[in-house]
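Standup notes
- DV: blocked on the single-chain target, sequence here:
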Amino acid sequence: MSQETQSSRMKYIDKHAYFRCLELSVSESCNYQCRYCIFWRNNRRRALMSQELALAVTDKYLDYLEYHAQNIRQPLIYFGTGEPLLSWPTINTVSRHVRRRMPSLRLSLITNGSLVTPEILRSAKDLCIDVGLSIDGERKTQNLNRPMQQSGRPIDTYQAVIDALELGRSIDFPFYSLSATYNRPGFTQDALHVLSLCEKYSIREFALDYDISSLTPENYQDVAEELLSLYAIAREKQIGVFGYWLIPYLNQKEGDGFHCYCGNSAANSICITPDGEIKVCGYDPRSFGMLSDFESILQNPDYRAYLQHYNDGSEDCQGCELYTLCCGQCIFGDRSQEAWQVNCRFMKYLMEKLREGDESNAEGKAFPQAGDPLHDE
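- DV (later): unblocked, structure below
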């Protein structure tokens, strides 16, 4: 990025703000009660989007993409927020409509796996929907972090993922990604288990992240070392890794353009709720009114002010070498809080270690870069 961009990311946003990803929040409901879920901390609604509204929003987005076709790289509709398969009929209807109107558009979702059926996977295969699965590790960890009850009895959520993987294998459906989020040090064994599942089921990406709010001055280096070790192991296994902690490193490698952990904070992505409201993302409770069209969103003064507050950063940010590289930390981050300061130290530590890894590689190869993340850049 240029020095001018460094002084204000909003200038970059104004020049390059095209909604590459529509997060179509077909479900704000979930049949799990995951311990670390941001959505359930901020919004406990259980709404599902109607097929009529989903089709109307999709058509507005397709009109927008057609108008800006020369500017938007790899556009995407992500069926997000809660457990998407609770709204599978809507996903199926929208996907078939998209394939008739814009066959090349990427469609994706991440599911907990509990509602996967042969019929759903066959349709997803026919419609070329990228499907990822969430799993946090071995059976004990998975069932503790991602609990579910049915008729008052606990369900084995680990087995639900394994069953989904086996079903995918039986009908030759390639799951796109396995994703895990951790919130305390000592997660290596569980993450290695997820990597072993990636190998076993020929899954090409491990979406590995750590809850930023759980970092402390005492543990951030330990967390970083675990992530780095896992990244190196994944490299040897030829499995891509993507996580917010890799953003500065990947941006350094990209040259022009940049990845965003949260494309929503850089106006590359937008969320539309089951009621047709505009949100920066599905996890932020703030609404910016009802959707009329995508062109007018960036003209909304409240929406722009929200992005401005986030993207301009503080004087400390603008003096940091990572300022133009860490584009996309969570918009909920408050730089006045200790957690944000710890996150900065965490990111700088990771960048230093990743650079050292590049320099020490005798063949001059960088750490492997992941493909496009399932959510969005």
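- Follow-up: The CA atoms of residues 35 and 144 lie 8 Å apart.
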